[in-house]
């Protein structure tokens, strides 16, 4: 599985490298992405123990965001389960469709400008 940060792309992700990136913001940069193929990925951004995480499994209707930020330990467990392609890897966290979140944010933004 491919591992990408704002500093570049690595062809093979490992649990050790994922942990290193989560713990070291300088190495991580702005984001971490684990991708199986185009439009099938898990990505995160954030710092310390407040990581905002999304996954996409194909088209736009299969794009989800975590309801709450994840801690570094939660993120590590999630990314390793994804890397190892465990069934139900995402079940320990609550997710909502990204499309719904974006629509709610747009509605709120429009209401504030009315």
Task: Write up this protein.
With about 110 residues, the chain is an alpha+beta fold. It has one domain. The chain has helices at about 15-25, 25-30, 70-85, 100-110, and strands at about 1-5, 10, 30-35, 40-45, 50-55, 65, 95. The chain has a 7-stranded antiparallel β-sheet with strand order 2-1-3-4-5-6-7. It is globular, with a radius of gyration of 15 Å. The mean pLDDT is about 90.
Q: SSE layout and pairings?
A:
Elements: E1 2-5, E2 8-10, H1 15-23, H2 25-28, E3 32-37, E4 40-47, E5 50-57, E6 63-66, H3 72-83, E7 95-97, H4 98-112
Antiparallel strand pairs: 1-2, 1-3, 3-4, 4-5, 5-6, 6-7
Mind describing the biggest β-sheet?
A: 7 strands, antiparallel
- Roughly what percent helix? 25-40%
What is the tally of beta strands?
Answer: 7
Task: Indicate the radius of gyration in whole angstroms.
Answer: 15 Å
Beta-strand share of residues:
25-35%
Key attributes of the depicted protein:
114 residues; alpha+beta; seven-stranded antiparallel beta sheet
Brief write-up:
The protein is α+β, with helices and mostly antiparallel strands and 114 residues long. The chain has helices spanning 15-23, 25-28, 72-83, 98-112, and strands spanning 2-5, 8-10, 32-37, 40-47, 50-57, 63-66, 95-97. The model has no long low-confidence stretch (mean pLDDT 90).
